[in-house]
Amino acid sequence: MALLDLLGRRWILRILWELREEGLGFRGLQERCGRMSSSVLSQRLRDLANAGIVEQDAGGDYGLTAPGGRLLAALLPVYHWAEEWARSAGGARRKRTNSRPGVQR
Amino acid sequence: MALLDLLGRRWILRILWELREEGLGFRGLQERCGRMSSSVLSQRLRDLANAGIVEQDAGGDYGLTAPGGRLLAALLPVYHWAEEWARSAGGARRKRTNSRPGVQR
DNA sequence: CAGTATCCTGGACGATACTG
DNA sequence: CAGTATCGTCCAGGATACTG
Q1: How much is the CA Rg of chain B, to the nearest whole Å?
Q2: pTM: predicted TM-score of the whole model, two decimal places
């Protein structure tokens, strides 16, 4: 279940999403992710690269590898479900959460 | 992207997986998850319930709601990819991670 | 068995400064 | 621009004791 752990780490899903259609450079990725810390981005990129999900092209840009692309494809239904969920349940339901409401961790 | 955050939280994917085919009681779930802390399980269950993904049946067992089932379905390709990934890349590749190798966070 | 209340600790994350 | 090194904070998660 190691991969699931990787996926669970903060920013990972976001990074994959941002790379869904085009390769991006370090800074480009960073700002698309709403200013995540460069140290963290660096770390994540290394992890993803070690996992063979992401790689750098000749120009230095980051992009998905073949397996990485397949992972993204597998993830699409989830991203989709997330949107839908946000639209429906997001409004209604939602009572006491006990955990703080925003993006935390 | 709130849901993605929820999914990213530790144990969540695991819990959904364990509920994939049958309802389970609190303790049952707990031990299937390799002894997660009861306090955490309680928290997670509450979060999942508030999100309308999980619910308790008359007998007190936890199970997926209809949308929860759909979420699980959307997740299947990912679980599958994870297995496959563990088999292939898990052995090869994998060099310096800088983060400790095991399940952490 | 089911679930809650507390306390404590590790390490993820953010900020920042710095190198090439 | 690309990436690394440091450092401090904070909180998620583990352990445990306890109630119904």
Answers
A1: 15
A2: 0.84
What pLDDT, in 10s, does the model give residues B19-49? 999 999 999 999 999 879 999 999 999 999 9
A52 → closest Cβ in B73, B89, B99: B89
Contact B5 A52 (CB under 8 A): no
Scan for tokens 């699931």, then name that residue: A4
**Contacts (Cβ under 8 Å, ≥6 apart) of B5:** A103, A104, A105
Tokens of B98: 């800088």
Residue labelled with tokens 């997330």:
A82
Alpha-carbon gap, residue B14 to B22, rounded angstroms: 14
Q: What is the distance of C-alpha A60 from the center of its chain? A: 20
User: How far is it, in rounded angstroms, from Cα A19 to Cα A62?
Assistant: 8
Tens of pLDDT, residue by residue over A30-42, are: 999 988 999 999 9
